[in-house]
Write a structure and sequence with these properties.
The chain has 274 residues and is of the alpha/beta class. It folds into two domains: 1-32 and 82-126 and 186-274, 3-Layer(aba) Sandwich (Rossmann fold), CATH 3.40.50.1220; 33-80 and 129-180, SIR2/SIRT2 'Small Domain' (2-Layer Sandwich). It contains 13 helices and eleven strands. The chain has a six-stranded parallel sheet with strand order 5-4-1-9-10-11, with helices on both faces.
Length: 274
């Protein structure tokens, strides 16, 4: 399938900031399972834990080793994956557009950065599995998970004493935690670029939404702000979602039903180089 000529023309004449908003559907084509899929569940003893239970500060306080083991296993899956055509195309969009480009991603796998997007123009609003931060928040910024922590983490493996010692804040010695947004936490600016993401929606001339259902509040807020301003919204997803409903309601933009790898390179090629 190819872009409709009217949409291609609209993209070619776009001016100003283009904001990309991406979710798990982009990385699914790299073989990364969805958060709530089979690989998201975790067994401790005889009990199965859901992702919603593991991804909380409450769980981390009660069983930090088990929470870290789950996240290190997920990190291993992500590190074994490679950026796909959609990741590479979005990186190319930044190279072509410079300051007229901004990426807001819900994905914690780091594949956008590995494809070539810059940290400066990429808002990782749910964090990054390759980073950790002080559980007491004494550090001003997240730090990398130590390189000596095995990225090929096997399911069911426990932390060694050395690994446990490495997963601590280098400043105050408190336990370090994965740099991800947990279910019992809220978005903030310092860690998850909350205000900056909303401001981007206020400044954007075009919003392109790829592979997200809008199940969390900040992405949907970005979409609502863009919709209220009347700017075009282009949505790429295998099935209709709340973002495609915004397109239908405003009549501005397009819903492209299908995969990110199919549509995103075409969208990037249609956008003007700056």
């Amino acid at each position: 399938m190819t872009l409709h000529p009217s949409l291609r023309q609209q993209l070619q004449h776009s001016r100003g900031l283009v904001v990309w908003l991406t979710g798990a559907g982009v990385s699914a084509e790299s073989g990364i399972p969805t958060f709530r899929g089979r690989e998201g569940f975790w067994r401790i003893g005889s009990q199965n834990y859901r992702p919603e239970e593991m991804s909380t500060m409450a769980a981390f306080r009660e069983m930090p080793d088990e929470v870290w083991a789950w996240y290190l296993y997920r990190r291993g899956i992500c590190r074994a994956a490679a950026p796909n055509a959609a990741h590479r195309a979005i990186a190319r969009a930044e190279q072509r557009s410079g300051d007229a480009f901004l990426l807001i991603t819900q994905n914690v796998d780091g594949l956008h950065l590995r494809a070539g997007n810059t940290r400066q123009r990429t808002y990782q609003i749910h964090g990054n599995l390759d980073l950790m931060r002080c559980s007491r928040e004494c550090l001003s910024a997240p730090i990398p998970v130590p390189q000596s922590i095995d990225v090929r983490w096997q399911k069911g493996r426990e932390l060694t004493d050395l690994e446990r010692a490495l997963l601590h804040c280098p400043e105050c010695g408190a336990a370090a935690r994965p740099h991800v947004l947990w279910f019992d936490e809220t978005y903030d600016e310092e860690n998850f670029r909350f205000q900056s993401s909303i401001e981007a929606a206020r400044l954007a001339s075009l919003l392109i939404v790829v592979g997200t259902t809008g199940a969390t509040s900040l992405p949907m807020h970005v979409g609502m702000v863009a919709s209220q301003r009347g700017i075009p919204i282009v949505v790429v997803n295998p099935e209709p979602n709340p973002f495609s409903n915004l397109v239908r309601r405003t009549g501005r933009g397009a819903f492209l039903e299908g995969s990110a790898g199919e549509w995103v390179p075409q969208l990037v090629d249609a956008l003007p180089a700056r």
